[in-house]
Specification:
Bound molecules: D-xylitol-5-phosphate, zinc ion
Number of helices: 8
Radius of gyration: 16 Å
Number of strands: 8
CATH architecture: Alpha-Beta Barrel
Structural class: alpha/beta
Number of domains: 1
Strand order of the largest sheet: 1-2-3-4-5-6-7-8
Strand content: 15-25%
Helix content: 25-40%
CATH superfamily: Aldolase class I
Shape: globular
Amino acid sequence: MTELSVSILSADLANLAAETADSMVCGADMVHFDVMDGHFVPNITYGAPVLKCLKKAVPEAFYDVHLMISDPARYAQDFAAAGANLINFHIEAVPNHVGQTIAAVRETGCLVGLTISPSTPPQAVFPYLDELDLVLVMGVEPGFGGQKFIPTTVSRVAAIKAECNRRGVSPRIEVDGGINTETASLCAQAGASVLVMGSAFFKAQDRAALAKQVRAL
Ligand code: DX5
Ligand code: ZN
């Protein structure tokens, strides 16, 4: 059983509430909310005020917030207050303050996810595995939806899963970027328990059938 987190970055953003509600109706377990600041990544999306409106419009959703921003500790409380259930931040954004940033997110009451970009070795998250609810492994360079999955992601997920097993801990392992039915299956086999889908989900002819297929992995 795999959880599906639908990335609304690929939705019709003029109809965000309706697209989010439809994702839930079609079987999404989570709504993946991609926050980009034009500094940590070369793109800008939306922030806490948009999440707050979305939470009001679709309160039943679990909001999986993915912060691709340079100063996650500074803004974590804003996202928590706006309705985030889980906050992911990038290890590359705060290389010397990972522990403090985990604590700052934990303080907000949200679940804590630590994210690694494709060029960061999976071993970088090992020291923090006991403190995390989730590890988010990027399948593409962060910044844009619709990119091609980087195949080495699969072995990176497997390395993190093996270390979790060795340590007897079980944070969720989530993969984000380039997920379609084929790459979803590879990631699930390697130990991923949450899969993010953006463009593949919103382009699908039958979103409910796709969600069912991914959740059955
Ligand atoms: C990329 C984002 C992803 C992206 C996924 O920086 O973090 O969540 O929207 O989109 P797809 O599934 O199209 O790769
Ligand atoms: Zn994301």
